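Record type: monomer structure entry
Structure origin: computed from sequence
Chain ID: A
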Amino acid sequence: MLHDIGIIRCNAPSIHCHGAEPYICHGHIGAELLREEGFARHARVAERHTGSGLTREQIIAQGLPLPAEDFVPETIEEKVICYADKFFSKSHPERIASPEHIRQTMLKFGNGSLERWEQLEKLMTQ
């Protein structure tokens, strides 16, 4: 749950969050909050769990309101949280997504997102 702390400042009414920032920023915002408190390792997990990680190229190409940097999980902790997070939805906590549903979702964001997801899946299921 700590990796999602940034949603407190985001506008996501369906999950009862009424902040000013776009939801896509919740990982980056959470990382800033965690770094301010001295939790640098936890901050990296927060900022790298969105999608299957976000690349600098994706951020620029999609015009996302994030720093133009790579936010792709690198450590095992970052990868585990990124992977596990995809199975659960904040708006429908009673549902668990299937790997096929997650693959289809990742494909909407491009082949790079899907490839990163498949690498995470391979790592977690070996």
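Annotation 1: The first helix runs from residue 26 to 36.
Annotation 2: The chain has one domain: 2-125.
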